[in-house]
Specification:
The chain is an alpha/beta fold. It contains six helices and four strands. It has a four-stranded parallel sheet with strand order 2-1-3-4, with helices on both faces. Helix 4 packs parallel to helix 5.
C-alpha cells in the first residue's frame, strides 16, 4: 500500500512503531536475560525473538526494505507516556534530528497499525510535521496505513476463510474444541 508514495522520491523513510516501556520487553523475554540487555539484542539470534515486540518490529523493517528496495531508512518508536524508559529512539526526537541532518523530504510509515487512527494522525501527521518543518525540513509525508487497500481486504478474507476451513469457528460463533 506504500508503493506509490515510495515511487514519488524522498530523502529518507522513517518507520515509526508504537512504543512500549522497555520493562515490557524484559518481562516478555522467556530466556530472562536477552531482551534489552545489550544495544544489539535484536541482532543476536535468540528464542526471545518469538515474543519480543522490538525484534519483530526490526524484522518487519528488514522484510519491507528488502522487498521494496529501500536503502535510506531508520526506525523509531512513538507514543511514550510517563517517566520510565520506553523503546528508543523516540520518534519525536528522530524527526527533528533527521531534518537537522539535512533530510528535506521525509516519508513516515507506521507499520504497527493496519488503519489510520486519531493518535497517529495527530502525533505523527500533525505534530511530527511541525517538528520536521521547524527543524528545517521541507516536505513531510505520512504514508497512510493499509486501511481499505484491496490487498489488505483480500488478505483478511483469506485469513477468515482459512480459520473457518480449519474448524476454528462453528456456526454458533463458539470456538471449536481444542485438542
Amino acid at each position: 500500500s506504500a508503493e506509490k508514495m515510495l515511487q514519488g522520491g524522498y530523502d529518507h523513510l522513517l518507520f515509526s512503531f508504537h512504543g512500549l516501556p522497555e520493562r515490557h520487553m524484559r518481562k516478555a523475554d522467556p530466556t530472562g536475560g536477552h531482551c534489552m540487555t545489550a544495544k544489539n539484542c535484536c541482532e543476536v539470534s535468540s528464542p526471545a525473538h518469538r515474543t519480543c515486540y522490538r525484534a519483530q518490529c526490526f524484522g518487519t523493517v528488514r522484510a519491507f526494505v528488502q522487498r521494496a528496495g529501500v536503502t535510506r531508512f531508520s526506525v523509531s518508536f512513538q507514543s511514550r507516556l510517563g517517566r520510565e524508559p520506553w523503546l528508543k529512539p523516540y520518534t519525536d526526537v528522530e524527526i527533528p534530528r533527521l531534518a537537522a541532518d539535512g533530510v528535506k523530504k521525509l516519508l513516515v510509515i507506521c507499520p504497527a497499525f493496519v488503519s489510520d487512527c486519531l493518535e497517529t494522525l495527530e502525533e505523527i501527521g500533525i505534530r511530527g510535521r511541525e517538528l520536521f518543518e521547524q527543524a528545517g525540513g521541507k516536505e513531510f509525508v505520512l504514508i497512510p496505513c493499509m486501511n481499505e487497500h484491496p490487498r489488505w481486504i483480500a488478505t483478511l478474507e483469506t485469513l477468515v476463510r482459512s480459520a473457518f476451513e480449519r474448524g476454528h469457528y462453528n456456526h454458533q460463533h463458539q470456538p471449536a474444541p481444542s485438542g
